[in-house]
Specification:
Chitinase A, domain 3; 23% strand; seven-stranded antiparallel sheet; 4 helices
Length: 184
């Protein structure tokens, strides 16, 4: 008689575990419809590519409108960085491996000030080592000590999709005003 309750418990345990075992067997079997999934993946990839192209085009148009509004004569690099050296220095050119010290302000396209050296002091970084936005890194290599420049940095060369989680919002285009004051 004592074994009968044990059998009932084992049966309950079996029926409780049966759906889990069934699920594991089903999910571990080989997928017999890979073409359907690969078509869905291709459609998703194509949709993302098209969406990204539209976002980049829209941002590029916004930058163009901004430049036209201020009538700045800016050059554009292959990556989309815009720059205008409005005061030429006569010091040495920036090169990778040197430490650059800059005075700067960073604004959003709407004119809001995000950061400036007036608030935080000059910024120093090693050129080519990372640690700064890729657009700033690219732009500094165009300068010599004493240059004053305006950079317009598209979001993909700045803080990207997430922003900096502080003063720079998501997908923000940045306008830098920079003076390269020292290289060492």
């Amino acid at each position: 008689m004592k074994s009968i309750p044990f059998i009932k418990i084992r049966n309950k345990a079996f029926w409780l575990l049966f759906p889990v075992l069934f699920f594991l067997v089903i999910t571990c079997t080989e997928n017999t419809q890979p073409s359907r999934d690969s078509n869905n993946n291709k459609m998703t990839t194509d949709s993302l590519i098209n969406f990204n192209k539209k976002v980049v085009k829209t941002e590029d148009e916004e930058i163009g409108d901004f430049i036209n509004r201020y009538q700045w004569n800016m050059k554009k690099t292959a990556t989309g960085l815009r720059y205008m050296i409005y005061h030429k220095g006569n010091g040495p050119f920036a090169t990778k491996g040197k430490y650059a010290t800059i005075m700067y302000s960073v604004r959003l396209l709407n004119g809001d000030l995000a950061y400036s050296s007036e608030q935080t002091g000059p910024r120093e970084f090693e050129i080519g080592h990372g640690g700064v936005e890729s657009g700033l890194e690219e732009g500094i290599l165009l300068l010599r000590v004493g240059d004053h420049v305006k950079f317009i940095v598209p979001s993909h060369l700045a803080f990207g999709l997430l922003g900096d989680q502080d003063k720079i919002p998501q997908r923000a285009t940045l306008v830098y005003d920079i003076e390269l004051i020292k290289l060492k």
